[in-house]
Amino acid sequence: MKYAVAIDIGGTNTRVALVNENLEITDRQQFSTNPENPGETLGKIADVIRNYGDKVVGVGMSCPGPLDLINGQILTPPNLRGDWQHLHVAQELSDRIGLPVYLNNDGNLAALAEAVIGEGKDYRFVQFLTVSTGIGAGFVIDKNIYQGAHGWANEVENTIMKQGGPCHGSILPGGIEGISSGTAITTRARKAGLDVKHAGEVNDLAKVGNETAQEIMTDAKVHLANFIAAIYNLTDPDIVILGGSVAIKVEGFVQEVEELVKSKVYEAQREFIKVRKSTLSEDSGLLGAAYLAFSKEK
């Protein structure tokens, strides 16, 4: 049986998994990422891959963005500094291990997993959105990631939905991530005086009648629905799959967003609106990375 290696380099930890042709993870390793020195982290990754032997056909890799997907290069992620920035990371690792390495972002790879073995496996045009710490996305056509002309397709977090709206970090004011992400929901609630730890607690307060919490949750859902309706008008996907902690853990979130989306498109479109909750685990990015490597080998 053939195997691929899937890598998820995060600002804090790096995960490496060995995945078979059935997209089953047969081994996984995790260690701290050196956020300043890529050589140390890439050396550890290379050691793990060498220990897997000659059964590995290729490597799929996810890194924090922004990324240059055309040239396999990390650009300027806030959590990876020093020599990480502008590093041609795919080529750097490939030179160390003698195997092809394919770089993509976590949203695209999660979308690919959804399209291959998740809720989108029976469809051609699969849109994925993660609603969690941030807002990420990926669009897959016939089991292939759509990257656009310069690799920036579905870098959606800065899409402006409200003039002069809320923001956080490097997100522009009114960007969808600054309104509908878990971080945005929690931050807005705290600024309004609510004692909450995460978006789920904001939703709990909304359910028991807290007007401030209700306003924040409604704003998040309405603007996310506006955004998804725009996606349907632009690319006409078969299905939109929502993942991430907010979509998966906040009761009724996905169903409410779907109904809102239906109210924001032409009546003739409504029968085609399909917004579903992800059924894959947090390993979706790793599984997508492995499938990417297998697909390039064919």
TrEMBL record:
Q: Pfam families annotated for this entry?
A: ROK
Source species, please?
Blautia luti DSM 14534 = JCM 17040
- Report the protein name in the record: ROK family protein
Q: Extract the coiled-coil ranges from the record.
A: none
Q: Which Gene3D superfamilies match?
A: 3.30.420.40
What InterPro entries is this protein classified in? ATPase_NBD, ROK
Query: Which region is the signal sequence?
Result: none
Could you say which protein family the record assigns here? Answer: Belongs to the ROK (NagC/XylR) family.
Q: Mind telling me which CDD domains this protein's record contains?
A: ASKHA_ATPase_ROK
